[in-house]
Amino acid sequence: MIRIRDLVKRYGTITAVDGLNLDIEENEVFGLLGSNGAGKTTTIHMLATLLKPTSGTATVNGYDIIKEPSKVRSSIGIVFQAPSSDDMLTGYENLKLHSMLYSVPRHARENRITEVLELVGLLDRKDDQVKTYSGGMRRRLEIARGLLHKPKVMFLDEPTLGLDPGSRETMWKYIQTLVDEQKVTVILTTHYMEEADMLCDRIGIIDKGKIIALDTPAGLKAGLGGDVVKLRTKDRDVDRIVGQFDFVQKVEHSDGLVVLSVKNAKRALPVLLQHIEAESAEFSSPTLNDVFIQLTGRNIKEAAEGGFMERIAQYD
Amino acid sequence: MHSTIREFTIEDRFAKIYALWLREFKVFLREKSRLVASTFTPILWLFVIGNGIGSANPSTIGGVNYQQFIFPGIVSMSIIFTSVFFGSYIIWDRKFDFLKSVMVAPVSRGEVFVGKALGGMTNSVIQAAILLAIGAGIGIGFTPLSILQTIAVVLLLSFGLTSLGLALGSYMYSLEGFQMIVSFVVFPLFFLSGALFPLSHLPSWLGALTAADPATYGVSVMRSAILGIGSEAIGVNAAILVAYTAGLGAFGIYSFGRMKAV
Q1: Cβ B26–A93 below 8 Å, yes or no?
Q2: A267 in the same domain as A148
Q3: CB-CB contact of A30 with A186 (8 Å)
Q4: Do A73 and B262 count as a contact with CB atoms less than 8 A apart?
Q5: Which residues are CB-contacts of A43 (< 8 A; sequence separation ≥ 6)?
Q6: Residue A310: pLDDT band with limits 50, 70, 90
Q7: Parent domain of A119
Q8: Would an 8 Å CB–CB cutoff place A60 in contact with chain B?
Q9: How many domains does one find in chain B?
């Protein structure tokens, strides 16, 4: 559905996107995960024909983003980082406007508007001006707008940025509905790990304009070497005992704790506790954040916050 | 392998322009304060300056009193201010990302420009219509021909100057920057147009500047149509006004074409 080939975007001496190659398949939910300034939005803007690449190209729905921008635009829907509807108009009026910009056939317009409003749960608010909507409702209206013309590809650029936790979860629910009910390929950018983990079939971790890891969420986490079990014990024989189990991949001692890497902590822990006299035991599964830290040496939240403040400054 | 996207018909293209125009018109109707504020200033000029200067100088110009003389000028003034100011809305559209949402749609820059320009033009025309109605109240005698001529001038001048405002706005990224346009474009267009004084006895440097002002031809043609002053040159002035309007429209389309989307 999307083929990206050697895509580069430079701003003066800064390289925002650095020779990107990526294939995204039909009906896939693909997550571009990275801190702010990693090149996620720049990539999306190029794929959406809003920005000309410095070099390289891509095809979206089989159309070249440089040679056939109008066809690319007809093929895609997009939800920008900041809501972009006219807040003097009602939700319905915004959708009507865009249905005409996208040449949705006249006889199909009303039905389609009702359909997408229903999908995002805004049908009862359609005749209210957008300025009376909450942040979450505005985002949902953007999703509805992006779906009006039945696009093949839907771009969601940080769809939950700046939303409170409740609205974020509602938004996830609607994105999930979108994925389940509309036959559409979704490209989502985010710096929220749990968002990527929950919604995406595959994730590309992008850092300094390059894809540095590409796999399913489970695959990325498995790459870290399984779960971790931490035991506190006075048993001096612990190394010998755990050594006899195949599922234990690594043993380390730190801060008086025995730290074990195991394939499946939920199954390993009861077995271990049968053989070892432990004062306390805990286990954890790796998160995408652990993956990110291992790949970049930085925590994505810290990396993100700097960028977020910059963006606030930019809007002032 | 991909589904084929159909080519757009003429009807599709008109629908896009209509949709963009309709949005401007709805916003205009919902922001009544805009209309009230921008109609009040010309009325103030017409009655305060018109009567004030008129009473200090009771002689007539071309057979009409001063208030009547400046009437076409004040109608033009309202068009100049509203039309050029409308250019600032493209900066608002950009600031609130609305522009981006339009640019990512399969709409050409020319269509975006025409829809927006027609929207701005509509605002100016509505204000001009209010002022023309007031004109009837201060003793301006309209004939069917003069009304038709006046409508033509109002349409041309408001489209041309809205194009100018939008073109200038497309190069700017801050509303503060647009304030410069007021000092360096709006006021010169107004003062040099002959809205407030006859152009026949000006020093040559000032005459040259007024000749370069597109609004001059709007004022002249309207004055000829409504008051019968300078009617011998109405054809030439009308032709120059049409040429200016076309030129400014082309400048607007060109400027929108090179405007950055993000």
Answers
A1: yes
A2: no
A3: yes
A4: no
A5: A4, A7, A9, A17, A20, A32, A189, A206
A6: very low
A7: 2-221
A8: no
A9: 1
